Amino acid sequence: MLSTAYYFLQVLLCSGIMLGYYWMVLRNKKFHQYNRFYLLSVAILSWIVPLIKIQWSNSFGDNEQVIRFLTVVADNNSELESVVRSKGFHWSTEGLVSSFYFTIAGLLLLTMVHALYRIYLLLKKNPYRQIENVFLIITQAKGTPFSFFRYIFWNDQIDIRSASGKQILQHELTHVQQRHSVDKMLIQLVLIAGWFNPFFWLLKKEMDMIHEFIADKQSVSDGDTAALAQMLLTAVYPQQHFKLTHPFFFSPIKRRLQMLTNNKNPRFSYLRRLVALPLLAVLVILFAFRSKQSRIDSPISVASVVENVVGDFRSHVIGNPDKTFSAKPISNAALNKTYTIVINPGHGGEDAGARGYDGTKESDLSLAFAKKIKELNSNPNIRVVLTRESDVFNSVVEVAAIAQKLSPDLLISVHANNAMPIKLAGNKQKENPQKGVELYIASKAKAFDYEGNYQLANMLGNTISEVANPFLGIKSREKGIYVLQTLKCPSVLIETGFVSNREELKLLKDESYQSKMAASILQGVELYLKQREQNGKEPYFEAVNSAATETFAAQKNDQNNDPSGIKDFRKRNPDVKQVHWQRSPFRIIIELKNGTAEVYDLEKAESKNRAIKKYGKLPIAPPPPPMMPPSSPEKNPIVHFEDVVLESVYINPETPPSFPGGDSAWRNFLMQHLNRDVPINNGCPPGKYVVKVSFLVDKIGKLGGFELETDPGYGTGAEVLRMFAKAPNWNPAKVNGKSVISRIEKTVTFMVSEE
Questions:
Q1: Which single residue of 214, 610, 636, 689 has CA 20 to 30 Å from 647?
Q2: Any idea where the MurNAc-LAA domain is (predicted)?
């Protein structure tokens, strides 16, 4: 909402500056045709100039004052847009403002339609005479004579053969020949969209006068100026006015008389008109320049303005179904080479995939998402190719062959998920509430490049998690991902949401949500490629090798006053996105908004001083993770197996152990029993905290033998162990149909946001 209001403010300022120049330099001067087209330019350029975006580099010399000025303007515009995009109205205020705007615009539109209808009635009720390509309508209606496009409405009480009648007719013919009605319709439409702008109302008034000046000049070119002036003064027909028309007797007479009797040519007439060009250049400088480093924040564009206006209207009229979702705009990261990204829309043709309650096919949704990804890609170094462009069927073998021929650098397979209904007593069932986005990669045993797969999935997970509600994590599996296993490039399968959930299905079908999801995917791809070019691999997100990753977002509470100084650091350095640390060696990793990262070794004075010189005071690193106190067997509720020998434990059984009720029941258990605020309460900084735990599942499903493989501290490991103490018996692993003892790994990720 606020970005739309900011755009409207720019339109108002732009029109005010341009109309101010007209008022001081061009108004009441005799170059009427120039003034006419200048005012039309004001009406159009006021909307266009704020949409022009010119990326400006900040490199300049100390003595280049003009360049320095342009840079200041560009930085200011970028900062304004950044502030606008980070703020928002309260929902009630937003609804009130939207309602008021569309109400006034609707009333003006109805007024325009009513005026057209009145003209239509005059055409229908009165006889006409055609003179070449002009229609002369004879009527006694008040407010005539006037013209509208090729129609001249003539009052039959005026003798068309008299000298004054001929002058009036010539006057109206000029309106027709000059197509002044086109100007009026355009200005009226501008007023409907920009009724809040007082300069547009002044522009309309001035345009009406210029039309009359042009017509008056033509009507007396071969006639008597004094006679026309006398006729204007003695006119007796100003009782009624038809909007959108050119009534002869209605326009302010004094200015028309002054213009008729003014025989002086204005001084510096050409100079007055030429100054409009540098004025336009000044407007472009003031409104269009943006700092190049702020591209990641995506300046307001035609698409974003239209999306915001439509979104504002939808949120008021039908509510805002994706209110909780947000997506960072596509960054167009600078890449060193051209990459081919193959997007595979899942299923197709006779293979519809999953179906929603209303018959929506997964194959249609996956194709829509794939096309949106291709449509939104604007990076010249990324080539997006789809394995299918229409609803056709290809087997997985054919899909793999199609993709392989394209020599892809990355492959992303797009699907939609489905959850079986929950069975109730009496053969009844209810809708499964499961929703969210999942990422799948090929299992380590079958993946061509498991590390590359996970790095790509992890980067996509970071960008998609800002749109998905919720993000269910990264998973690996061995079935249903033939294409991912076959291609020799990093590959990820994205389950964009559950068609079995009515609420999420509405989002999956919503084009604005599709755009946000597609933008987040493109951003993840760009960041992954940029990181791969710079470092060969992503430097600061730990790869998780597990069957499933569950992610929980913890919100900062009001008691946290930024003890580490990260918020203050990011406030002083707006280009910084996030800060991370490595313990051995002790390093600070500064992640930037342009998709790059800078690493400084804090154990080396030179490196540390270089970071301080560039960014100022550095934030305080969090304390090292506290050591886990040894658990007392008497107090530890977790069962320990004393009689288990190594040979009897299966690591990769035929049927692995599982939580009773499946993945959805496991997630529900986590939601109910895991305290997500533990890391916050222990003073952790924003970031991800991954706990990896391995444990034994015996033949009857009892758990024991817990080992923390990864413990980031801040009480997270202890909290995961506490949660497992409340877990029910699991379904045991099986080999040859018999229950066996097995060891399994599970990963739980605590995600602490910035706010």
A1: 636
A2: 400-526
